[in-house]
């Protein structure tokens, strides 16, 4: 497979076309950003750990019947994925209060929810990714009612499996974000990445964050934390 043109450069990844029309080449960059790009740092090894973590998780989800865009790993920083039309929504699932939920409602930090809380945010840098509900998304033509339903259902399945995986790593899954796209068969599938950039993870023993909050809150070096996640993930029997 041959990498061709840069189609899109995001905050953590570059997407290239390839000689196969339905296959994209994703390069995970050694860059980390927070607060809608206002905080940005280059970090050696960050792209590699996220690329590998995301690959392991997507492969595991596929084994558990959750369709996603991952095709294969090329090398440490690069992978092939199916070309999809991204639905410009961030689908968030929360198991414990943190981040924007905690702030918005002055909720107790890490209060455990009886059932997962689902939220959608509209992907827009100019608007700072505002909260969006199903009616608003449908009115704006961002997604159909059926797509919203499918995204909700799949996100809950992802939550169930991720909770199992992280539990085996002695980690609580606080919350995470996923994105979806439509593939060439017009099927809605999971896309983007699943990594410590897009999840909140708390070590059950030390109660320390093992995710991008380390960077957001300036709690120390990020790459060693991501390497710790990769190391534990590789030891999970069903995942490796
Ligand atoms: O900030 P908030 O509490 O809404 O984030 C919920 C989850 O979504 C967190 O795991 C965070 O890392 C993730 N997220 C993301 N990309 C964004 C916003 C949030 O991956 N642009």
From TrEMBL:
UniProt KW ATP-binding keyword: yes
Domain spans labelled SAICAR synthetase/ADE2 N-terminal: 6-232
UniProt record, GO biological process: 'de novo' IMP biosynthetic process; cobalamin biosynthetic process
Pfam families reported in the protein's UniProt record: SAICAR_synt
Pathway(s) the chain acts in: Purine metabolism; IMP biosynthesis via de novo pathway; 5-amino-1-(5-phospho-D-ribosyl)imidazole-4-carboxamide from 5-amino-1-(5-phospho-D-ribosyl)imidazole-4-carboxylate: step 1/2
The keyword Ligase appears for this protein: yes
Catalytically driven reaction(s): 5-amino-1-(5-phospho-D-ribosyl)imidazole-4-carboxylate + L-aspartate + ATP = (2S)-2-[5-amino-1-(5-phospho-beta-D-ribosyl)imidazole-4-carboxamido]succinate + ADP + phosphate + 2 H(+)
CDD domains linked: SAICAR_synt_PurC
Gene Ontology molecular functions: ATP binding; phosphoribosylaminoimidazolesuccinocarboxamide synthase activity
Record-linked SUPFAM superfamilies: SAICAR synthase-like
EC numbers, comma separated: 6.3.2.6
InterPro entries for the chain: SAICAR_synt/ADE2_N, SAICAR_synt_PurC, SAICAR_synth, SAICAR_synthetase, SAICAR_synthetase_CS
Similarity field: Belongs to the SAICAR synthetase family.
Descriptive protein name: Phosphoribosylaminoimidazole-succinocarboxamide synthase
Taxonomic path: Bacteria, Bacillati, Bacillota, Bacilli, Lactobacillales
